[in-house]
From TrEMBL, chains A, B:
Name of this protein: Phosphate acyltransferase
The keyword Lipid biosynthesis appears for this protein: yes
Subunit structure: Homodimer. Probably interacts with PlsY.
Alphabetically ordered keywords of this record: Acyltransferase, Cytoplasm, Lipid biosynthesis, Lipid metabolism, Phospholipid biosynthesis, Phospholipid metabolism, Transferase
Source organism of the structure: Roseibium marinum
PANTHER family named in the record: FATTY ACID/PHOSPHOLIPID SYNTHESIS PROTEIN PLSX, PHOSPHATE ACYLTRANSFERASE
EC number(s) reported in the record: 2.3.1.274
UniProt lineage: Bacteria, Pseudomonadati, Pseudomonadota, Alphaproteobacteria, Hyphomicrobiales
Pathway: Lipid metabolism; phospholipid metabolism
Location within or outside the cell: Cytoplasm
Alphabetized GO MF terms: phosphate:acyl-[acyl carrier protein] acyltransferase activity
Amino acid sequence: MAKTIPISLDAMGGDNGAEVVIPGAEIALVRHPDIRFLLYGNEQVIRPLLEKYPRVRDASSVHHCEVAIAMDTKPSQALRQGRWRSSMWRSIEAVKTGEASVAVSAGNTGALMAMSKFCLRTMANIDRPAIAAIWPTLRGESVVLDVGATIGADAQQLIDFAILGGAMARALFGIQRPTVGLLNIGVEEVKGLEEVRTAGRLLRETPLRSLNYAGFVEGDDIGKGTVDVVVTEGFAGNIALKTAEGTAKQIGGYLRAAMNRTFMSKIGYLFAKGAFDLLREKMDPRKVNGGVFLGLNGIVIKSHGGADAEGYASAIDLAYDMVKNELTHKIAQDLVHYHRGRFAEAAPTSEGDL
Amino acid sequence: MAKTIPISLDAMGGDNGAEVVIPGAEIALVRHPDIRFLLYGNEQVIRPLLEKYPRVRDASSVHHCEVAIAMDTKPSQALRQGRWRSSMWRSIEAVKTGEASVAVSAGNTGALMAMSKFCLRTMANIDRPAIAAIWPTLRGESVVLDVGATIGADAQQLIDFAILGGAMARALFGIQRPTVGLLNIGVEEVKGLEEVRTAGRLLRETPLRSLNYAGFVEGDDIGKGTVDVVVTEGFAGNIALKTAEGTAKQIGGYLRAAMNRTFMSKIGYLFAKGAFDLLREKMDPRKVNGGVFLGLNGIVIKSHGGADAEGYASAIDLAYDMVKNELTHKIAQDLVHYHRGRFAEAAPTSEGDL
């Protein structure tokens, strides 16, 4: 028997819990028959659903949990209520013990991040985790991080994010030295946030083997796909992500209204339906569902809470890809190389800056 | 003769200077024949152009300036080179002396803001100016500020921005108490940036006559038009603005590619051409060209540096509207009311927070 990929699922997470998780697992399993699932959640809810999805049933072990974390639970509350025993916690814990290679949850982001940090801990030399999003661009896809794990980041944390995001881009796109840009306002070296300028100077002065630093980028460079990895702190990153989502919805709304307006435009729509379907597919947010928690001792994938089965399956696909392409190993390698290089090459006087 | 609206133009600002400014002035003048222009710039460049646009010539006075600020000049450099004598400075100065009611420049944002601050100074009780953008939404338009005047803002500065933006929304949309939201990540009261939470608490505790505080909004609420005014500090605001611009271009690119793909889709495009023209008009960035500098003793409008004559005319239209609708007066009123209310009603112990 070929090697299987064990993935733990928080079966209770998301707006619709197991009703979406199990059918989503079915879709992903058809695409990747070598997945084995560890399902965490209420057995009374999961078991009857598995009868409808025998493929998932045969590829899964069910681990009963009494507690499910609600979507509106605050992180501190979630930790108090759900540590050790909630479906969310236990799906993460399976990564810690090595039973699973990666965990997926559609539960609330704050709680999931708090539990992931508490359970998996940040990697050596990494202060803070980040959430990385895969952003569709005119050139393909880019990795954008942090899109909301923590607010603010100093220069060293931005460099950490660059390394983490670079490793993810290598795993995802198979590029040897992905280009990395720091999100800023204005591309001139003298402009923008102090921490970003410092990080830019350091990345320029000490080139890294694992990434190709391309300087500052602005908000409109994300959609252009100017760089493979866009690095920013979590507040601006989250605002950028949500603003892009909102703009896409807005233009979709304009387009629908315009096509429905006259008899002629309706006929035009029918002729061009294939093109519109393609556009809809291109803009389908379900296709790129999944935020990747980076910088912890193990990978956790956050699915959108409102994802349907197709969207949830995309999050599982992403989890699968990250394991197959050895994301954790790549990150560890890059960090070792960076810190070895840093201590070997950096002049003592510049240490303070780092 | 009816009362005229005097508008000063930095005729040398922008990627194409007077070549765009004069034709743009012509377009705006057709729409608003009561404008009178004060043109600042190199006479040798302006005079010949005016011969081609006699309507502008007859409605303008020309003020020769030796110095023009280049698009890549740093703010400090611009002040050194151009104070007192550049076309940019003198167009702003005309607002200070009262010769003009508002100034328009397509020159570089950093230099224009530095000169505007130096020349006009911030209003009493206002620490820092903001740049307000008019953002097309699914419901119409919203005011978003700050989109890049300064990085970071404390709670009091965010409240100042709310008052400034509220007054602008009243002037622009004719709404008596515009709704105002604070841009944040997560809409729960416990989430997001400390300063934003404090500003939110203060706005909730002390309702203002001039605006209706609606709580936190997220990035996707901007395009939805959830509130009339979105308040944020300049870094996140600039990233949001540029990201939305980038996303709109990206989707436009997808749409063009999809429509060109097959014979059927090309036919569909021809039938629906009216609809596409409407969509293009709706998404035309030239229609909403113009950032409004708020919080200074006088209004300055920044046109996009790459704007064409149509886009520049929109910036002049905006300047005209702001004067006609007495923006400066509205801001002054709202500030007086806020500070009077604050000092009359606020308990001494809460003063420290404000």
